[in-house]
Specification:
The structure is a single chain. The chain has helices at about 10-40, 50-75, 90-130, 145-150. The protein is mainly α. Helix 1 runs antiparallel to helix 2 (about 50-75) and helix 2 (about 50-75) runs antiparallel to helix 3. The longest helix is centred in the last third of the chain and has 38 residues, at about 90-130.
């Protein structure tokens, strides 16, 4: 995780903006992971519901980090741009917003670690359990001739 040493540095705007884009990427990736997991046999396991709920809460935490980073950028949009003038008086606002963003990203990180362990444990359970005991019929693979006949060839 990237931590800013001094939110008054000339690169605050660049760093906060970069972190903002990164937190949005994390949010998008989390949504993709939830959609992917929901479409797998893992979602049929009873223990998957709390894990999927935790991942959904992680989307909220990552989105909140984006919001706080946007607040930091908005609090002092000219910081680090080379515009002459007195130092910004928004230091406290920027510092608070960055601290909140770091906290949200820490929560998201912890939730992702927890979910990764739970999904791994559930996947091992699925691998050890015979397919027939899950109530799913094995997929039949058509012969090569059947495939071409279905396509009208």
């Amino acid at each position: 995780m990237t931590r800013l040493k001094d939110s008054r540095s000339p690169r605050t705007f660049d760093r906060a903006g970069s972190l903002f884009l990164g937190s949005q990427r994390i949010t998008a990736e989390l949504l993709a992971v939830i959609q992917t997991l929901a479409a797998t046999p893992y979602a049929e396991l009873a223990e998957s519901r709390p894990v999927l709920a935790d991942l959904t809460a992680t989307v909220v935490a990552a989105s909140s980090a984006s919001t706080h980073l946007a607040i930091a950028v908005a609090a002092d949009p000219l910081d680090g741009t080379g515009v002459p003038g007195p130092p910004s008086e928004a230091f406290a606002d920027v510092q608070d917003a960055l601290a909140e963003a770091v906290h949200c990203l820490d929560v998201a990180s912890a939730n992702c670690t927890h979910a990764a362990f739970a999904v791994t444990r559930g996947s091992r359970h699925l691998a050890a359990e015979p397919l027939a005991s899950r109530g799913a019929a094995p997929a039949s693979v058509p012969a090569a001739g059947e495939v071409s006949n279905r396509r009208g060839r």
